[in-house]
Amino acid sequence: MSQKPFQFKEFTVQQDKCAMKIGTDGVLLGAWCEVNNAESILDIGTGTGLIALMLAQRSDAELIDAIEIEPEAYEQAVENFENSPWGDRLFCYHASVQEFAEEMDEKYDLIVSNPPYFQRDEQIEGKRQMARQSVSLGYVDLILATSKLLSQSGHASFIIPFAKEGEFLKIAREQGLFSSRITRVKGTATASTKRSLITLSFAEMKTQTEELILEKERHQYTDAYKEMVQDFYLNL
């Protein structure tokens, strides 16, 4: 995948040091999650810093923190934050989510994460796969940290493989977090569902469910997808 900077409408993301490059998943989560006048935001496993940057553009939150454990990705996120229009509101911590949750007393109104795909028992090879696996950030650790760091009236949003949705929601329920909104994502109308966008909160309520289709045909994007990401992509 290209090492070139990724130019969005209001900011640029350098990605040459990161194993995981800019992808549709991160953009989807950054555009989909509800900001709801959040005053404090946390991006867990920020990578390039993409989602935190998108939320800085979308919100007036005074505090936007991010966590990244991989050293080169951490350095890249810091660089991207400092070179953005919102450098005074963005801060990245070089830590694991477990360490951060243990040491941080801050509560956040909005927590977001595009977590690794693979579980501990699945084969991983190479740096890019290491960035995607969950030895250092499994769903249990992610949900435990979220339940500790989320404000009582706040919400947390994630994008995960659709196949892991049931497992993820079960872990969340065990920690007192319940789904309020789920959008299931398909590449085309006839394709299988690939991703689940999930919002959790401490309040039990009826889950609002939706479907999002990205393309009518190859490179012909649906109106719903274009409307969602139009404030970010230069060319759509």
Automatic annotation (TrEMBL):
Question: EC number(s) on record?
Answer: 2.1.1.223
Q: Which GO terms describe its molecular function?
A: methyltransferase activity
Tell me the ranges covered by the Methyltransferase small domain, including all copies.
Answer: 35-122
Query: Where is it located?
Result: Cytoplasm
Q: What is its main location?
A: cytoplasm
Q: Which PROSITE patterns match?
A: N6_MTASE
Question: Which reaction is catalysed here?
Answer: adenosine(37) in tRNA1(Val) + S-adenosyl-L-methionine = N(6)-methyladenosine(37) in tRNA1(Val) + S-adenosyl-L-homocysteine + H(+)
Cite the InterPro entries for this sequence: DNA_methylase_N6_adenine_CS, SAM-dependent_MTases_sf, Small_mtfrase_dom, tRNA_Adenine-N(6)_MTase, tRNA_adenine-N6_MeTrfase
Q: Give the top-rank taxon of the lineage listed in the UniProt record for this protein.
A: Bacteria
Task: Give any single GO term for biological process.
Answer: methylation
Q: Which UniProt keywords apply?
A: Cytoplasm, Methyltransferase, S-adenosyl-L-methionine, Transferase, tRNA processing
Q: Enumerate the Gene3D superfamilies for this protein.
A: Vaccinia Virus protein VP39 (3.40.50.150)
Which Pfam families does the protein's record reference?
Answer: MTS (PF05175)
Q: Which family does it belong to?
A: Belongs to the methyltransferase superfamily. tRNA (adenine-N(6)-)-methyltransferase family.
Please explain the role this protein plays, according to its UniProt record: Specifically methylates the adenine in position 37 of tRNA(1)(Val) (anticodon cmo5UAC).
Which named protein is this? tRNA1(Val) (adenine(37)-N6)-methyltransferase
